[in-house]
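This is your field. Have a critical look at both lines of this record:
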Amino acid sequence: MNFLVLSSSSGAAGTGAMLLWIVVMFAIMYFLMIRPQRKEQKRMTAMLNDMEVGDSVVTTSGFYGVILDITDDDVIVEFGNNKNCRIPMRKSAIAEVEKANAAYATEEKTTTKVDKKAAVEDKKETK
């Protein structure tokens, strides 16, 4: 009789341990797989929503182009120097976006750094 009581209580403990392992494995899968995927989806959605006319893009097939027009779900992209190569495509077909203002902003930063250095040197010379 005591043997039956012991075996049933150890079975309950085994079930609890098994349930604990399942929860731990789900938590590990969440942090290693699901969470990074959601983070990447949010980044892609933000990137696609921030696109503007004139931005350079790379499509999922590897083509480089410039955005000419944007609608809700589609964009018209011009590929290469040929002005006749304009293709409408889904926004989801765009893999990377480079802002048109990014090159201009980096040029401004370098000129301001040079100007600041020149101003500091002028102050030193006047003293």
